[in-house]
Amino acid sequence: MLSLLAAIAMATSAGSASPTLRLQPQPGLPVEQRLLAAHNVERSRVGAAPLAWDPALAASAASYGPALALLGRLVHSPRASRPGQRENLWMGSRGVYSPEQMVGRWIDERALLRPGIYPAVSSTGQWEDVSHYTQVVWPSTTRVGCAVYSSIATDYLICRYSPPGNKDGLPIPTAWLR
Fold it and tell me: Around Cβ 35, how many Cβ atoms within 10 Å?
């Protein structure tokens, strides 16, 4: 795991504009390690403590994959079915995106973040445009569990976070804006 974090950290120092390009795929490692490392590289960049992998959250995330595939679009699971958790969702063409690129799409939302009090922190005026990113780096979140579910044509990434982030009324740390 340490070598994975070191490899990604070295890749991020290259200074490319897009996080999806900076997070270098590590195909020899388990998907879980790759997803966790992609989260933790960005958390480290903003000074947030690393997340720990939570198998129960991962199992919870995996259980929602078939429902997403049936829907064929992204719809958050009911909050009542995941108490004490937040959820990030992503979808793309099957087999095209690496785990690092999937998480990197959420990290790309940082470009739309502006100073303020959550949820009024998006330069577009739509909090949803930055909410995946803010959950990835939310400082009081300590655990994550994710699953990739594949249908015939689509990969779905479901990540669950605890304790939940994106709390209304809290200011955005300035480190997130760099």
Answer: 24
**Which strands, in side-by-side order, build the sheet including 154-162?**
52-53, 143-150, 154-162, 86-93
- E strands present in 22-153: 52-53, 86-93, 143-150
Two tokens at 17?
A: 């504009």
- Residue 117 gets the label, from left (phi > 0), alpha (psi -120 to 50) or beta, of beta
Tokens 């209304």 locate to 168
Q: How many residues are recorded in the chain?
A: 178
pLDDT digits (tens, 9 = 90+) for 106-137: 999 999 999 999 999 999 999 999 999 999 99
Q: What is the rounded distance in angstroms from the CA atom of residue 99 to the CA atom of residue 146?
A: 10
Q: Chain-centre distance of CA 168, in angstroms?
A: 19
pLDDT in tens, 74-96: 999 999 999 999 999 999 999 99
Is the CA virtual torsion 36, 38, 41, 46 positive or negative?
A: negative
